[in-house]
Write the structure tokens for this entry.
Amino acid sequence: MITFDQTTKIYEGGVTAVDGVDFKVEKGHIVVLLGPSGCGKTTLLRMVNRLESITKGRIVIDGQDSMELNEIELRRKIGYVIQSNGLFPNMTIEENVMIVPDMLGWDKDKKRKRFERLMDMIGLSADKYRKRYPYELSGGQQQRIGVIRALAADPPVMLMDEPFGALDPIIREKIQDEFLQIQREVKKTILFVSHDIDEAIKMADKIVLLKGGQVMQYDSPSEMLVRPKNDFVVEFFGKDRALKSLSLHTIRELNEIIGLEQIDDNIPDTKTLNVNQDLRNTLSMLLNQEADQVIVMDDLGDRLGAITIDIVQKYLHYEIKGKTAVGQGG
Ligand SMILES: Nc1ncnc2c1ncn2[C@@H]1O[C@H](COP(=O)(O)OP(=O)(O)OP(=O)(O)O)[C@@H](O)[C@H]1O
Ligand SMILES: [Mg+2]
């Protein structure tokens, strides 16, 4: 767990970049630092591994004040990934990935095994890429290497500063999915900087929304979208914030709460969707195809019922008004 306790950063010259920040990151969670440019995301992140000093307040990592960690402990405990992957151009891929294990004095055999395991995680052949140099890899591949380099010594904490920000949207979504898959296995405690709302909603267990170095709201993505605490939060997420919240829920959840409609077999060319599909995609399919219904299938291919624009709307209403409203017939 990481605890921020009145954490403050005032740069020389007097800029207050981080202003009395208080929040806790649970073990195994991804917390996304989100907010407009200059709100202090990078500064806050870099204070955790002491690339920036703390002016006031504290950061406590697993019960230990960050100021008391020595260099070796810092490297072993905290992995760091940045946007421009930070690979050393004159070192091979294997040398790049093994920088921290090297520093920690791992033996050759242990390092080789670890390299192979990490490459396996990101679906790249260890033998094929071991001796290559960063410039011989695509941008997406380099970014993946940046991620496994941070994971190499198996640190409990990962700091990631817009790690996928430089990638084009399609590769980016792919790496996000892949990373979430890896996280399910490795369960790191992660602080992840983003200024992309969709990325934050997708990656975060909780979001810290910052403005001028202060926390505007600290909540799960769906709480923040559905129950924003102040005008800044409302404005930041925009008018379609309720729609965005749909991407966090599946047809299965809707079915459990509202229920699906009966299938109308008289409607021709009806499309089908899997019950695990998210509701944002479902709604855009309904809208784009001007379909009156889409048939919902479970994993075995059995037809569970039909979904319509109408019931997605009902679910949205339920989400916004909260659970009590439905019981009251709202
Ligand atoms: N080394 C520095 N010296 C003085 N001021 C700085 C320094 N680094 C950052 N700042 C200022 O601190 C504030 C926060 O900067 P920071 O880089 O943490 O923002 P950010 O949220 O990461 O922004 P972005 O989304 O653009 O990366 C800004 O006002 C910035 O100008
Ligand atoms: Mg930044």
Summary: Residues 74 and 236 are 34 Å apart (CA to CA). Residues 11, 13, 15, 17, 37-43, 195 surround adenosine-5'-triphosphate (ligand 1) (CB under 6 Å). The longest helix spans residues 169-186.
